[in-house]
Amino acid sequence: MSNVLSLASYKIFPAKTGGQKHVAVFYKYLSFFHNLVCVTIKDNDPSYAEYTVLNILSNSKLRYVNIFYFFTVRKLIKKYKSTFFLIEHPYYGWLGLLLKWFCKIKLIVHSHNIEAYRFRSVGKWWWRILFMYEKYIHQQADQTFCITDEDRQFMIKHFNVNPQKCFVSTYGIEWDHPPGVQEKIEARKFLETQYHISSNSILYFFNGAFDYLPNLKAVRAITDSINPLLQSSNFDYKIIICGRNLPVEMNELKAYSNIIYTGFVDDIETHFKGADIFINPITSGGGIKTKLVEALGYNLTAVSTSTGAIGIDEQLCNGKLLLVDDGDWNLFTNKMKEAANITTSITEKYFEHFYWKNIAKKAAERINEIENKD
Fold it and tell me: What's the pLDDT at 212?
């Protein structure tokens, strides 16, 4: 087993959002195969982790440029005899490179998307500066774990990264089979009671954190385009939208006919299990859409834009994933109605690909390959 020192520079405990789970749960399963110690900010609660967590980074935004962390982390590398330094995103790449040069340690960048393009999609003017920095960090790293093959191909082509140093390590789920029929029946009954829904209603579902612009734009697509088109079809349906941080100016969401806005819910699994169809009208943002991975894992039929389904192979889904070009809301609503008649189940291969233990095992094997080259 190798000794891996990781650095998660933002809140991941307790893991509630897809991004937080991508780090916290990946570490959980990676620690099955390697000795892992996580360095993170003071805001994180170590009691949620099944591996060693050290709360030594400041919560201040200035932590990203604190040069003194070099000395702090260098001591930890010596203490834990670490041979790998794993960072989330490229932001602490400068620290990773210093440690690589002065401590002879291998640097792994765990990439969640192309960060520069994610910021370009939400209108940040400085995305080009980030692009150059991100490119350099990935070029200098010993290995990059990409979340999708699309990101891997991008890095090879546009960052000029050695293909041998790019490896796909996707987002995952912690269950390896779909929920049982009785589980789904009970979840559906709960939602009917909780939200006063008819048993005859087709129940659509969308969730996300709405301080993230792509999710907020998706809600606007639901209210301004998708829901009016469905209303003109005159059939019985409801759209449940779950998520925190909805802007004040969108409080009118609760007043839309056929839309149920719940805010943040603790039992998101029940909503996944009890819904009929997951909708994913995402048209911007980078990386894999974690909510879609989870929805398909709960055996929901899903209707998604092309952008929203990046990183998910239709062939693994057995007809459960219906794709539509970004912004074609007429076709999107037609697919939503079509989805109500799909009765197939998600494949075993889907779980083989997206089960966290399998993902972490492959990443661990790649770490072994890197170490064995020396």
Answer: 87
Nearest to 285 by CA among 234, 218, 204, 368: 218
pLDDT-based confidence at residue 338 (cuts at 50, 70, 90): very high
318 near 296, Cβ under 8 Å?
no
The interaxial angle of helices 290-297 and 18-30, nearest 10 deg, is 70
Q: Is residue 297 scored above 90 in pLDDT?
A: yes
Q: Are strands 106-110 and 202-207 parallel, antiparallel or unpaired?
A: unpaired
Which residues touch 10 (CB under 8 Å, ≥6 apart)? Answer: 41, 88
Separation in Å, CA 250 to CA 58, 145, 214, 245 = 34, 37, 15, 10
DSSP string, 74-85: HHHHHHHT-SEE
Cα 45 to Cα 249: distance, rounded to the nearest angstrom? 33
Structural contact between residues 275 and 300, judged by C-beta atoms closer than 8 angstroms? yes
The answer to whether the pTM exceeds 0.85 is yes
Torsion angle, alpha carbons of 121, 157, 150, 334, to 10: 60
- 28-40 residue pLDDT tens: 999 999 999 999 9
Q: Please report which helix (H) or strand (E) contains residue 25, including its range.
A: helix 18-30
End-to-end CA distance of the chain: 15
Could you tell me which of 34, 23, 26 has the C-alpha nearest to residue 80?
A: 34
Q: Which domains does the chain have, with CATH numbers?
A: 3-172+355-372 (3.40.50.2000), 181-353 (3.40.50.2000)
b/e sequence 122-148, b meaning 16+ C-beta within 10 Å: eeeeebeebbebbbebbebbbbbbbbb
Query: What is the tens place of the pLDDT at every residue in 305-314?
Result: 999 999 999 9
Given a contact cutoff of 8 angstroms between Cβ atoms, the answer to whether 109 and 85 are in contact is no
Token look-up 């039992």 returns 267
Number of CB atoms found within 10 A of residue 201's CB: 16
